[in-house]
Amino acid sequence: MSVHKEVKRITTHTLQEMKNHGEKIAMLTAYDYSMATIVDAAGMDIILVGDSASNVMAGHETTLPITLDQMIYHASAVVRAAKRALIVVDLPFGTYQGNSKEALASAIRIMKESGAHAVKIEGGIEIAESVSRILTAGIPVMGHLGLTPQSIYKFGTYTVRAKEEVEAQKLREDALKLQELGCFGIVLEKIPAQLAKEVSESLVIPTIGIGAGQHCDGQVLVIHDMLGINKGFKPRFLRQYANLAEVMNSAIKNYVSDVKAKEFPNEKEQY
Ligand code: KIV
Description:
Blueprint: H1 12-20, E1 25-29, H2 33-41, E2 46-49, H3 53-56, H4 68-81, E3 86-90, H5 100-114, E4 118-122, H6 128-136, E5 141-146, H7 152-155, H8 165-181, E6 185-189, H9 193-202, E7 207-210, E8 218-221, H10 223-226, H11 244-260
Parallel strand pairs: 1-2, 1-8, 2-3, 3-4, 4-5, 5-6, 6-7, 7-8
The protein binds 3-methyl-2-oxobutanoic acid.
3-methyl-2-oxobutanoic acid (KIV) binds next to strand 6.
């Protein structure tokens, strides 16, 4: 039985109960009102307003260019749509690294101006001070370890992280540190399934995996990828649940051809 069946709004406490009861957590990204309405109504536990908006909404190659103002714009639209899901918003690149006061100010802006419920932040021990400071303001924080896309120029590649023992050990320590600091959950991106299993079992708080195997306490995907809107992106971990690019392409082609053929609008479609 679902622990959150009667829950009006998912909270960080609901997520913890879900882990305690062995119920998996479903998380998906959304960046705008219309999509978030559909995602929320479908029973999503967490909607992530990810900085992947930089890629799928704005067409940038990386997540680095998106700004705090742009994240707040996307998050506000999602907040207006979602009645039930917990809404988590990414702190974008350059708004928290190396300056915990700036991190807190960025998180406060997100919470105050968008109405979201929590923030997500990439990194481990090196961002501990920022995580702590945000938490002192009563803002729930989700961690993000493994492949952290804001560090892509350090990694040089989007390949699987923590395959070597040194990096795996750092990830284990980072995960424990984030839990100790008070994070309510941690995203584990693109790491070996065995490591994700070990980390998930060692933590009290839930882990949410993307390309991190079946033993995480929940899963997250980027909505454009799983709906087949983002056609070129087909990593092994991605299950494509629809081919919306094809559906949309065919609908739009039909519209163009109806307009050209003077078949749209017809007599019933006018005043
Ligand atoms: O920005 C994002 O969409 C994310 C997910 C890939 C976890 O951080």
